[in-house]
Design goal:
Length: 103
């Protein structure tokens, strides 16, 4: 196996950071029950890059959940490779927004 050229190594590390974070965010605690009682993954993920940071909004994410520690560790490689903070926040699911509307 031949070593990657320097620019390719950087890209490979960035992609590794993305995959590591995605894997950490793909956690059973962020699944929700369907109408029939089966569990299906919540496919909601929003990304934005305001200023000098990256904000990832994930449906069902909680900083108090035990999986948040794994998510924080997984962010580290991506933050290092991008040279900017990656902030993970909870996004609001459409069914939760129903209660926020006008009475």
């Amino acid at each position: 196996m031949q070593p990657l050229a320097l620019p390719d190594r950087r890209l490979a590390m960035q992609l590794s950071g993305i995959l590591r974070l995605a894997n950490a965010l793909d956690h059973p605690s962020r699944n929700h029950p369907t109408m029939r009682g089966a569990v299906e993954p919540v496919p909601r993920l929003e990304l934005s890059a305001p200023g000098h940071s990256v904000v990832v909004r994930v449906a069902g994410y909680s900083p108090l959940d035990p999986s948040a520690e794994r998510t924080a560790g997984a962010r580290h490689l991506l933050e290092t490779m991008l040279r900017r903070p990656v902030i993970v926040r909870r996004s609001v699911l459409p069914r939760e927004m129903e209660g926020l509307g006008n009475p």
